[in-house]
User: Fold this.
Amino acid sequence: MTIPGAKTAVDWLVSVAPDPGACRWEWERNPLGVALLPAGRRWDVLILPGELGRPTLDVLRLIGRPGPVLADFGDSRLGFFVPAGTASRWLGTGVRGAGRGTWIVVPYPGRATGGVRWLVLPDGEGTLTDPAVLELAMHEAAACVLTHGGRSS
Assistant:
């Protein structure tokens, strides 16, 4: 099954790979449907624990289209794609940053995998989540979780 926009998402993602052709080959032949891509070139990834990441994504969706978002198996962690350089400047308890010098496991856009999956597919145009907006969404989500015990209002 191919999701609309998957080709442009693939093109955008492999543009950061040291060897884009090898990355495509890996995605097509790897039974897990994943490839390793370097962070810090076009994007960094801020990784939030699931209990904060899920409501943060809900807030971001209310105010517009967020950049790409990954979830690991069981949604225990969510990764928000932000502009390159953000991870090295981010200060926040419980938030891990993946920037220059780190690699991210990335599933092929539009295909199901056994582990990591896309919650928000890259648009292929380079849309990323604004770090300031992400921070505000995190504060709103944290306040909501504290007030409602993790339940939606």
